[in-house]
Amino acid sequence: MELSSIKRVYLVGIGGIGMSGLARYFHHLGCVVCGYDKTATDLTGDLHNEGIRIIFEDRTDWIPYSFQQPDEGTLIIYTPAIPKDSAILNFFRDNNFGLFKRSQVLGIISQGMFTVAVAGTHGKTTTSTMVAHILKDSGKDCSAFLGGLSTNYHSNVLYGKNNIVVVEADEYDRSFLTLHPDVAIVTSMDADHLDIYGDHAHLTESFQLFASQIKPGGTLIHKKGLDLNAGFTYAVEAEADATASNIKIENGDFYFDFNNSNTSIPDIRMGIAGTHNIENAVAAIEACLILEVPAAAIKSALGSFKGVHRRFEYVIKNDRQIFIDDYAHHPEELKAAIRSVKKLYPGKKLTTIFQPHLFTRTRDFADGFAAALDLSDELIILDIYPARELPIEGVNAGMILERMQLQNKRLVSKQEVLNVIRDEKPELLLTVGAGDIDTLVQPLKQILQDV
């Protein structure tokens, strides 16, 4: 497929964070862009306001006339999250349109470009957004396809005027195997997506395949301790090829020193909080040094980096109340988020609201979730967000509660949680999860601001 020949693009599942980035990219190129999703969100509203037509019913008679016949100027992109019985998906399939997954299109776009690909079961969105911001802020420039909305740029896609592209490489459905990067970062390889991979060994094998696809002369950067054969390692307060040390918190800001064999950058102030984000920053710094960004420009850019929507994002921050929202949906992510909050605010009682994501993930990691959530002072847990899955008998949020040591815990509905917070008005609140818990953020913010 030649990108230059594409005139019309239809995205089945346009509302996803990765799919919406492609919609924006092709719209930016001047293509006619349309799509379908089952649910209207703030993101689909933004796309509509940018001139992209979206429907919310799975009806083939609502597909525009210009997409009725396949031709070389028409591109159909779909997400694996779309049900196989989708009428629109099957219309395109039955009428011999060429169907491409998002990951395949990213692979085509990045062909011939200097590609920085960031993979990992967690940390990849923040790290890839950091790399893109450093390149933009320093004047080096890049294009970028991100798995979240950058707070600095209010978008999940960035347009550059050079040959560098930063891509978030998603391991779900082995999507990242469509990429052949010049620089690859692997942030983590914890067991996840076992509904796809079956076990941790097969997940690890997939990451090893991804690492093997780096172009000749390219560089692999990975967290120390991962089961990867070679590469440039990084770590926080431990020995590695690139390290962060002398970590301290001053006035709510994190500072650290960066060192590798060639470069030292002292006293870097982070624009975002969390020890786990210092780890992400070390990987991002190393990638940008390979791209010959000056150390002083890297230091400045990290200070102005505002993070990613729903990645340790402050909703309220004042003397009376702190409210942080995070996308964490894996036990290791939860531990990182909760520990960072406790480190920042050691004198405050932490109330955590958690929405489990997927029945399979809850089943596979119930013990890990319990151990991570036990780090809170109070837990409010919501029902499982099913996403693409059907219920599994015996699998529910109670599985996590019954494994926890914490006494102050309860299961409530999404509506009830608003009443609980209205009554208790916690001084330190953390909402975590990858489902639709984000729809509670603004109502909770309003309740807390009415104190």
From TrEMBL:
InterPro entries: Mur-like_cat_sf (IPR036565), Mur_ligase_C (IPR004101), Mur_ligase_C_dom_sf (IPR036615), Mur_ligase_cen (IPR013221), Mur_ligase_N (IPR000713), MurCDEF_pg_biosynth (IPR050061), UDP-N-AcMur_Ala_ligase_MurC (IPR005758). Gene3D superfamilies: Mur ligase, C-terminal domain, Mur-like, catalytic domain, NAD(P)-binding Rossmann-like Domain. It catalyses: UDP-N-acetyl-alpha-D-muramate + L-alanine + ATP = UDP-N-acetyl-alpha-D-muramoyl-L-alanine + ADP + phosphate + H(+). Its EC number is 6.3.2.8. It comes from the Bacteria. Its main location: cytoplasm. ATP binds at residues 120-126. Residues 310-409 form the Mur ligase C-terminal domain. It is found in: Cytoplasm. The keyword Flavoprotein does not apply. Residues 9-110 form the Mur ligase N-terminal catalytic domain. One of its GO terms (biological process) is cell division. Pathway: Cell wall biogenesis; peptidoglycan biosynthesis. Keywords: ATP-binding, Cell cycle, Cell division, Cell shape, Cell wall biogenesis/degradation, Cytoplasm, Ligase, Nucleotide-binding, Peptidoglycan synthesis. One of its GO terms (cellular component) is cytoplasm. Transmembrane segments: none annotated. One of its GO terms (molecular function) is UDP-N-acetylmuramate-L-alanine ligase activity. Residues 118-287 form the Mur ligase central domain. Cell wall formation. NCBIfam families: murC. HAMAP family: MurC (MF_00046). Belongs to the MurCDEF family. This is UDP-N-acetylmuramate--L-alanine ligase.
